[in-house]
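Example record used in the benchmark description.
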Amino acid sequence: MRHTLYHKMMLHAAAPAMAAVLTLGSCSDFTDVAQKGKNLLSTTTELEMLLNQEMDPGSASDFRQMINDRLYAFSNVASQISQPNKTRNVIIWTWDEQQMDKMAELTASDGDYQTFYGYIGRIANPILSKIDGAKGTDNVRSQLKCEALTLRAWSNFILINKFAKAYNPATASEDPGIINMTEDVDITVPQSQSTVQQIYDQILADCDAAIQLDALPAAAVNRMRWSKACPYAVKAMALLNMQKWTEAEAAAKQALAISPDLCNYWDASMQTTTKGNILGGTYPVILRERLKAVEDYFLTYNLEFFGPVPTESWEAFEQGHAFKDLMTTDRLMYDNVMGMGANMLGLDYTITYDLNSVWNPYGLTSAQMYLAVAECEIHQGHIDAAMDYIDRLRATRINPQVYRPLQGSVTTEAEAIAHLKQVTHDEYIYTAYHFISLKRWNQVTGWQQTLSRTIDGTTYTLKPDSKLWIFPFPQNAINNNPNLKQNYNR
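Model output (structure tokens):
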């Protein structure tokens, strides 16, 4: 379920919502519940209710469309592109950097901006502002504080990666970032943007504070709450973007020491069947049951429903990968005789159609930590060690009949980078993290990559230094906060 930010949050670039500081509006003698003006969220039990909700940021559509992992359309794509007035989607599909100002104008609101600042303003900051004085046991108070800190760090990580430049060690202290909303910010004053460096410093500070408190359970009450591995995972992802390879690897390994399990999608326990509608064939497909995937540290709910995957991305999968071979698609629906893409989109794209499994577009997983360690090992010149961690992940994704280990056969950095990029694409194609990885690699010599896609005979390219790697702030935030300036042209 998505959550709508309070009006003042939007006025001041998503300041903490005042609803979290609930007050009585009537006279004090009207009720004996609390005095007039007293915060009603005064116990740990009441504050914990803010965390007991379904975290559902959606399907990461902007991130996935921008790097050609998915295309969101329900009619002929070439016809849409040919129209004189370009839509926001068409600007993204054609990677038309010259239309960034138009894209900003067309971004009236933004689901990610609203949702993640909502998590900060309606959940994390209200808890952090009241938890020290809340009635309850010390252990519960400390746990809720850890969860709120981790939630804010993770939310800031997604926001900074969408709306600002990638972290560059040489310029991060000057590059404009996003607005840093902490629990002590005065929401009556329009806030100014912090730098990219300041946001990453805040992310690390929140993660370190949660780690130092050490009050999170090894296994959360469910995978929509925060566990002990989570602040280490967020810290590892942030340090990875900051190019602090040794520290990032240490954090990732600490997460894995707590929760190393991976799902094996080729095991019968992770599969069900689907039936074709033309020939009546029966096909094995992934069954990723809700809240049951052992690799999920923290789950954000999404059905992989009607997702056209561009040919370039579909064909980029490693042979035998479960996320391709065992994915429920329109082609299986029609017994591989035909698909819906050609008729509906004018493009012969495979369309994912999984109504049984729950995918994790924004959440945290052990798989991310294996990839993080592998990437850090490559940067440190430890090719064999990197392939070891990649193989641990691949062994749970690749059909055992075709799986062959990489460790021992990869000897050069260029080969290692290519294999890491392959596995990252395969693992992150249904998430926001492929975009985040590519954006990070664009800052590192030898890792940059120009993307290309062909639609109706026309080839489009996205270069590593394109402005399109920075999404525009939504107009409803820009218009209501004079201090908020677009980052794509700065």
